[in-house]
Description:
Layout: E1 4-9, H1 19-22, H2 26-33, H3 35-49, E2 54-58, H4 69-84, E3 88-92, E4 112-114, E5 120-126, E6 129-136, E7 160-166, E8 168-169, E9 180-181, H5 183-187, E10 193-197, E11 203-207, E12 210-213, E13 229-235, E14 241-247, E15 251-259, H6 266-278, E16 286-294, H7 300-303, H8 308-319, E17 327-334, H9 342-345, H10 351-363, H11 366-382, H12 384-389, H13 395-416
Parallel strand pairs: 1-2, 2-3, 3-4, 6-7, 7-10, 8-9, 10-12, 15-16, 16-17
Antiparallel strand pairs: 1-13, 5-6, 11-12, 13-14
Helix pairs in contact: 3-4, 10-13
The structure holds manganese (II) ion.
Residues 11, 13, 60, 96, 198, 200 line the site of manganese (II) ion (MN).
Amino acid sequence: xxxxxxxxxxxxxxxxxxxxxxxxxxxxxxxxxxxxxxxxxxxxxxxxxxxxxxxxxxxxxxxxxxxxxxxxxxxxxxxxxxxxxxxxxxxxxxxxxxxxxxxxxxxxxxxxxxxxxxxxxxxxxxxxxxxxxxxxxxxxxxxxxxxxxxxxxxxxxxxxxxxxxxxxxxxxxxxxxxxxxxxxxxxxxxxxxxxxxxxxxxxxxxxxxxxxxxxxxxxxxxxxxxxxxxxxxxxxxxxxxxxxxxxxxxxxxxxxxxxxxxxxxxxxxxxxxxxxxxxxxxxxxxxxxxxxxxxxxxxxxxxxxxxxxxxxxxxxxxxxxxxxxxxxxxxxxxxxxxxxxxxxxxxxxxxxxxxxxxxxxxxxxxxxxxxxxxxxxxxxxxxxxxxxxxxxxxxxxxxxxxxxxxxxxxxxxxxxx
Length: 417
Ligand SMILES: [Mn+2]
């Protein structure tokens, strides 16, 4: 068999709206909205630069079933560019872009193959010699509950067998359980490489056969940090495959932190925040970040004053206004503590010490937390209108409120002394 290569991508979500940011800064949102398009451009260029034989796209090409025209035309143009470079492409659709959504009349190049709602197998040739069989199937509607992997069968010839599918493998992926299947289904299928989509964090579930999620090509929220991209897969004459990760993202998301431990003035903190943000861009990529202010120090009190979080956020956004690449601080989170050692302070035998000890005891056990919830909220829950309108508090949330209350008591009672 002739050696060959392909690129496996998925979850391009072209046309993602970045809704949360548009309410705060339409300009930044506009720049971010270009990112899914740009990452797709990088993908097409990577196929050409690496001179691969074909591209596989495993679903969620578009962000919504109402596929924007701009996204469809952009995708079409990308596959056309590949076709002109002699590169074939194979596409299945997933739960975000099912076949019953908005599908425009587009004339696809002959070298592009979009799989329909029934399973199909296409043979790929390199220099006139068949090397691989690509089997695929698209989502007919978004909420597919059947195990589509069972519908994809390897061809009877001795080619490298690829299954192209958008699906949820296993139970604990944190993603919607559409086209659910188990790893054992895929491993026992006779395929050599399962080119999957759906799970946005890249994961190699098996190496024999290869069962691969490349993840999405561009992070779209703080839950999608780190490099995002695709796999470049080289297959040698014996049919051994070797996937290599290629980043494609043009904007990267970061959760970052600054400690107030050794910072004793507001202007020093201001500088430190800018330094931290400016250290984030990698290889000229734009950045969206959240910065958590942590640690224990004298600035604690000033930072806890009303509105400080928002004012710091406005200030850092101004400071970074003309940064190139773009650095957008989405949020400043205060998670710092006073200089006093709370443990030591709770041993001093006064009123504050008693409050701190009580709070620690409550936070230390589930019963304690439930007790405090009952004391504070039972009356409220008795009211049927309040009960309807208010969400139940889980233990984590009560613990957090308790921690906040502890700090508030510290502020108020220390001041009185
Ligand atoms: Mn997706």
